[in-house]
Amino acid sequence: MQVTERLRDLISTTDVILSDIWGVVHNGVQAWPDACEALAMFRRGGGTVVLITNAPRPADAVQRMLDRLLVPREVCDAIVSSGDLTRGYVSDHRDRKLLHIGPERDSSLFRDFNVAFEPVERADYIVCSGLFDDEHESAEDYREMLTRARQRRLRMVCANPDIVVERGDKLIYCAGALAELYESLGGEVLWAGKPHPPIYDKALALAVQARGKATPAAGVLAIGDSIRTDLAGANRMGLPCLFVTAGIHAGELGERDNPDTAALAQLFASASKPPAAVTPKLKW
């Protein structure tokens, strides 16, 4: 496993980057200029960048958030989100009543579909995009509701498989925490994003559109900060991974800009394969 401080030292054979957003490009509060520059410079050299995110909203809404954080549009060729895949499921089930678990800000998941929303007692399935109040709640606050859903054998579509995400200097619970609890209760979960293949298949298809040709796995680099989603997804797809250590696992690794080697080894021990390289933060 290589430790690198510069993306440019790692990409001599890379044509396509699939980069996570939250934890790599920004932390939910501010963009990281060095990361933005690195992706933009890769593209200027002829590379293709697809941002791949577990955000529970469609790609156009993700782009609006990036604009608000002043992330330059030059960082990527395309964006694919778990929200896009969730919208695909909802579109295919427009005649079914759904329970939405998540904040109002995720309403773009259902834009233009005219679906019926019902409580757990009358819903046909669940779309979980997060917690209603992620600043103060945890998955345990939903145990009783999810127990009733399991009794009715409702399928849950998890629109954000992340367990936690950084918001500034805080870790915030995501929809994945509720989905894991629901599975532990015996419930059925359809996971819409990383580390599952459909979102990678969509990202690679967008890369083909941008480049006009397919790229072999050895020429694709996945970048992310999560063992459970980014590294696991890259390994599942047979892609090399650059792991950013100053993300959600930073607290486990010692100094944010100088991760402890032993702690890194312990962190990656549970992975099917360690990343090809690690870097504290994404820089050109």
Mean pLDDT: 93
| Secondary structure category | alpha/beta
Number of domains: 2
Strand content: 15-25%
The helix tally amounts to 8
CATH architecture of the largest domain: 3-Layer(aba) Sandwich
Strand tally: 15
Globally, the shape reads: globular
Structural Rg: 19 Å
Helix amount, in percent? 25-40%
Order of helices and strands: EEHEHEHEEHEEEHEHEHEEEHE
Walkthrough of the structure:
With 284 residues, the protein is α/β, with parallel strands linked by helices. It has two domains: 2-83 and 195-279, 3-Layer(aba) Sandwich (Rossmann fold), CATH 3.40.50.1000; 85-191, HAD superfamily/HAD-like (Rossmann fold). 30% of the residues lie in helices and 20% in strands. The protein is built from eight helices and 15 strands. It has helices at 33-44, 59-68, 82-92, 143-151, 175-184, 197-211, 227-237, 261-268, and strands spanning 2-3, 16-19, 48-53, 78-81, 98-101, 125-128, 155-158, 164-167, 170-173, 188-191, 220-224, 241-244, 254-255, 258-259, 277-279. The longest helix is centred in the C-terminal third of the chain and has 15 residues, at 197-211. The radius of gyration is 19 Å and the shape is globular. The mean pLDDT is 93.
Write a concise synopsis of the structure shown:
The protein has helices at residues 33-44, 59-68, 82-92, 143-151, 175-184, 197-211, 227-237, 261-268; strands at residues 2-3, 16-19, 48-53, 78-81, 98-101, 125-128, 155-158, 164-167, 170-173, 188-191, 220-224, 241-244, 254-255, 258-259, 277-279. By secondary structure, it is an alpha/beta fold.
